[in-house]
Design a protein that fits this description.
Layout: E1 2-7, H1 11-26, E2 30-31, E3 40-45, H2 50-66, E4 71-76, H3 77-81, H4 83-87, E5 94-95, E6 106-109, E7 114-118, H5 132-136, H6 144-156, E8 161-165, H7 180-188, E9 197-199, H8 210-218, E10 225-231, H9 235-241, H10 247-260, E11 265-272, H11 279-291, E12 296-301, H12 320-344, E13 351-357, E14 362-367, E15 372-376, E16 385-387
Parallel strand pairs: 1-2, 1-3, 3-4, 4-5, 7-8, 8-9, 10-11, 11-12
Antiparallel strand pairs: 6-7, 13-14, 13-16, 14-15
Length: 388
């Protein structure tokens, strides 16, 4: 039986889909080739926003058009939160909500050089705007030994960079008594004698300790790259969101990184337009973000999610048009910060991991601090490190 898995959403979903495909192949299924009609298609969905739900439905429609004779199974976060909504679609044969006890340690290699290694799942924070804890359950993690075994396998199979992924990876160790810093130390000392790099995924600011930052500053393999969710630059809005920090702590963490690693890449998640984000609070938010010495913003527009606590709060609602305007403002701030960061790194030595080529015969790659480089395509350089 020929199978295909269609994956939507985050890198965590991609890691889980890869683990699922590997298990099915071991059981005798055959991967459908590109352009070949499959007998079975599994759609692994996301539900982080209304747009994600819509993309899930569109993917299901497309899968049916391209595979008219296939059985279609839908799984993932959207399937877990809204199984009846999906089951009512004429194209769907079966809905299988994701189980919490499978693929706790999973790894997916993309089509270039890196793998996405799942080190944690679930979340205990229950931010008022977020549905993910309801879709993925409580925070849990595999052992450090299991994660390291996955990492060594990925490196042995040709990957040169490992990206740590999860829902709240800074909470690693909640179910095993270990810590995220313990995990980083183990990954920095893998029994692998060829060059490799480990890149940290998103870590909550209250879980990004100074000890972690100090370790990254002196490690051999952990990239100087931090991705930190801010979500709002207004303390009042952070309280409404039930975030676990304030702007003072966030600024302190960013300042500490800049002191320990002056050229580290610092990406920041920003959400705009949540309930309670009044004009005054928005101006405070924007000014705070503009003042931060970060490298780039990842901007998200707030989307109401059924079942979240924010919908029950008596708060002013930001009109959708204004949400989009605020998003555009922060995108412009982000563009300026990225240009300034690139300029600050000009002339410094960098180690680039070269990837594939684009449509114009140009290959590209990223430095340890996530600066994108390009050069004419050279097949022999693909998946190799080069010091520039």
């Amino acid at each position: 039986m020929k199978i295909r898995i269609v994956t939507l959403g985050c890198k965590l979903n991609f890691a889980e889909s890869s683990a699922l495909m590997n298990e099915l192949v071991q059981r005798g299924y055959e991967r459908a080739k590109q352009g070949e009609e499959a007998d079975l298609v599994i759609v692994n969905t996301c539900t982080v926003t209304d747009t994600a739900d819509q993309k899930g439905r569109q993917a299901i429609h497309r899968v049916r058009r391209e595979n008219p004779g296939a059985k279609i199974i839908v799984t993932g976060c959207y399937a877990r939160l809204h199984p009846k909504e999906i089951a009512d679609m004429a194209e769907v044969d079966r809905v299988v909500p994701k189980r919490e006890d499978v693929f706790l340690s999973a790894c997916s290699k993309d089509d270039r050089t890196r793998c996405f290694l799942k080190v944690q799942d679930g979340c205990n924070y229950f931010c008022t705007y977020c549905a993910i804890p309801y879709a993925r359950g409580r925070s849990r993690n595999p052992s450090i030994a299991a994660v390291c075994a996955q990492a060594v396998t990925a490196l042995s199979e040709g990957a040169k960079e490992i990206v740590l992924t999860g829902v709240n990876i800074g909470d690693f160790g909640r179910t095993t008594g270990e810590t995220f810093l313990d995990l980083l130390r183990a990954l920095d000392a893998l029994p692998f004698d060829k060059p490799y790099r480990v890149r940290i995924g998103s870590v909550e600011p209250n879980l990004l300790s100074t000890e972690i930052i100090d370790f990254v500053a002196q490690s051999a393999h952990i990239a100087p790259h931090f991705h930190i969710p801010l979500q709002s630059g207004s303390d009042e809005v952070l309280r409404i969101m039930n975030r676990h920090y304030d702007t003072a702590l966030f600024r302190e963490r960013v300042s500490y990184i800049r002191q320990a690693l002056p050229h580290a890449f610092i990406g920041v998640d920003c959400m705009v337009g949540v309930r309670g984000e009044t004009d005054e609070r928005w101006e405070t938010y924007k000014a705070f973000v503009e003042s931060l010495p970060v490298s780039q913003l990842h901007v998200f527009t707030y989307s109401e999610r059924e079942g979240t606590r924010m919908l029950a709060m008596d708060l002013p609602v930001v009109p959708m048009k204004e949400r989009h305007r605020r998003s555009q403002v922060l995108h412009e701030v982000s563009d300026n910060k990225l240009k300034a960061f690139y300029a600050s790194c000009e002339g410094m030595p960098q180690t680039v991991l070269w990837e594939g080529k684009n449509d114009h015969g140009v290959m590209y790659g990223f430095s340890e601090n996530y600066i994108r480089h390009s050069r004419p395509y050279d097949r022999l350089r693909v998946n190799t490190f080069e010091c520039l």
